[in-house]
Amino acid sequence: MAAALALARRGLGRTWPNPSVGCVIVKDGRVVARGWTQPGGRPHAEREALDRAGSDARGATAYVSLEPCDHHGQTPPCSLALIAAGIARAVIATEDPDPRVNGSGIARLRGAGIAVDVGLMADEACALNAGFMIRLREGRPLFTWKAATTLDGRIATRTGESRWITGAAARARAHQLRATHDAILVGAGTALADDPELTCRLPGLADRSPVRIVVDTGLRIPTECKLVRSARDCPTWVVTVPDAPAERRAALAAAGVEIVAIAPAHDGRPGLAAVAAELGRRGLTRVLVEGGGRLVASLLSADLIDRAVVVNAGSVIGGDGVPVVAPFGVAELRAAPKFILEHLARCDGDVLECWRRSR
């Protein structure tokens, strides 16, 4: 099952709106085939593994990181494929909460006389596909906040200089994160100040660049910026309000940008709960937040940050530097969002911390 989960991780960021699943087929103590969900969400992991196993699948055991699908979509159900292949036993990490499955795949396998065990490494499997499960449960993607800060929590000097707070190893980890997410989210301030590309620029991973999303109420980003100039090569969405300037909408759309209009909240900006719901409706399961302090503060205030990956550099800028999070009205410690540390690692001279929201 650990091998099946490792295979599933290969697909993170490439399979939305589907989950990323791994499958290992074992017979007579020997692995005869492996499979994982392919880009775009299909073929599914089980189909990939069965095709590789061929006749060796008969009488074998299939280890699958998520319950096999049991509905007819663009492909036939994986439950039927496993039955037709003659699998004798299925070990499944966790049930699929999709209403079209939700235990029916397991029931179909058992009804066909296949021995089924459920729950092996279930926590790990749920964590891996947390974004898929949050979208099914709450109608929104999982949001991971990524930040690179000094020891005193600053992301830029008082003059706005921010390149580079952390070292090359930490920046490479950031690009790895991009490769495992469906989309990157920033605010207009970050897009204007940094003119970022928001692509994955590690060798061999250029095709893993996610959708770029900019929250820009007034459509301030220029058509000459890198995000807009590359919009036809890498999907770029700009989230704004319905009454945003028509001429700016037309100019960005002509450059290949997709305009996403969301009703404004009380502050006149797109309501973030509605933004999250729209991203979920579009099938996104994992969104990496690389925006500045104002966007992060708004997401924290809206209780939309699920994970945090923070790289701390061994430097200090001081109180006149730009804080990693803007003020968002926390008056009492008990009201502050809480996170649980899950992983700690060194990146050369920097320290990487991975946190999970405590709810």
Which key phrases capture this entry?
359 residues, alpha/beta, globular
General description of the model:
The protein is an alpha/beta fold and 359 residues long. Helices cover 28% and strands 23% of the residues. The protein has 12 helices and 16 strands. It has helices spanning 2-10, 45-53, 78-85, 104-111, 122-128, 130-138, 168-179, 188-194, 226-229, 246-254, 272-281, 293-301, and strands at 22-27, 30-36, 61-64, 89-92, 115-118, 142-149, 154-156, 183-187, 211-215, 236-240, 258-261, 286-289, 307-312, 322-323, 339-347, 350-357. A 9-stranded mixed beta sheet has the order 11-10-9-8-12-6-13-16-15. It has a 5-stranded mixed beta sheet with strand order 2-1-3-4-5. Strand 15 and strand 16 (350-357) form a beta hairpin. Helix 3 (78-85) packs parallel to helix 4. The model has no long low-confidence stretch (mean pLDDT 94).
